[in-house]
């Protein structure tokens, strides 16, 4: 193998390392035209769910074998959670991939739900839905709060195989979490991160 063949194999590599083995979920950011303006729809997760009960999120979920693409995952999950017709959904674009962790990748899509489409949220998954007007959202700067994570020295990690072992100067992980507050509802975590990026794209593009 010569340098030219090595170059051909690595040039223009647009892949994300770890994406092939990570769990994948797709999200849908639904836009609805109501009260003479565009609004973004969000869900409050059912209180009975095992994972993140009561949290605010976008429609979405894990990719399944029946899905031909992450876009299809986003649409299918939205149909199942909001009880709407596929024909009432128009996907208008895909945002950047969100690497939640090295084991979970999120693929956010943005689209439109027909304003006259009746919503019938699945009570097993959705406690409530609400909308946020884009003119209000575009003016918001989220609060930022930090979370610190440290290495568990009592874990089964093979410390003895690395230089300095448990005395190795591991860097503590600090995550800055955005928080939005809308009419008494707190949006945080991955949902807030994706929402913040959506707001950035909207405000940035307005000056193009």
UniProtKB/TrEMBL annotation:
It comes from Sporolactobacillus terrae. PROSITE patterns: NUDIX. The keyword Cell cycle does not apply. This is CoA pyrophosphatase. Transmembrane segments: none annotated. Residues 23-155 form the Nudix hydrolase domain. The keyword Manganese applies. Its cofactor is Mn(2+); Mg(2+). Gene3D superfamilies: Nucleoside Triphosphate Pyrophosphohydrolase (3.90.79.10). It comes from the Bacteria. Keywords: Hydrolase, Magnesium, Manganese, Metal-binding.
């Amino acid at each position: 193998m010569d340098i030219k063949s090595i170059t051909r194999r690595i040039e223009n590599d647009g892949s994300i390392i770890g994406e092939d083995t990570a769990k994948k979920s797709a999200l849908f950011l639904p836009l609805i035209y109501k009260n003479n303006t565009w609004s973004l729809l969000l869900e409050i997760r059912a209180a009975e769910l095992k994972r993140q009960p009561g949290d605010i999120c976008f429609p979405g979920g894990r990719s399944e074998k029946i899905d031909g693409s992450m876009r299809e995952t986003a649409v299918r999950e939205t149909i199942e959670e909001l009880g709407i017709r596929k024909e009432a959904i128009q996907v208008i674009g895909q945002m950047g991939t969100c690497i939640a962790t090295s084991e979970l990748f999120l693929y956010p899509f943005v689209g439109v739900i027909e304003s006259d489409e009746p919503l019938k949220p699945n009570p097993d998954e959705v406690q409530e839905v609400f909308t946020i007007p884009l003119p209000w959202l575009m003016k918001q700067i989220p609060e930022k709060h930090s979370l610190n994570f440290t290495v568990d020295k009592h874990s089964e990690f093979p410390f003895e195989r690395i230089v300095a072992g448990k005395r190795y100067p591991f860097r503590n992980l600090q995550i800055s979490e955005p928080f939005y507050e809308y009419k008494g509802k707190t949006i945080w975590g991955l949902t807030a991160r994706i929402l913040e990026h959506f707001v950035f794209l909207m405000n940035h593009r307005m000056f193009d």
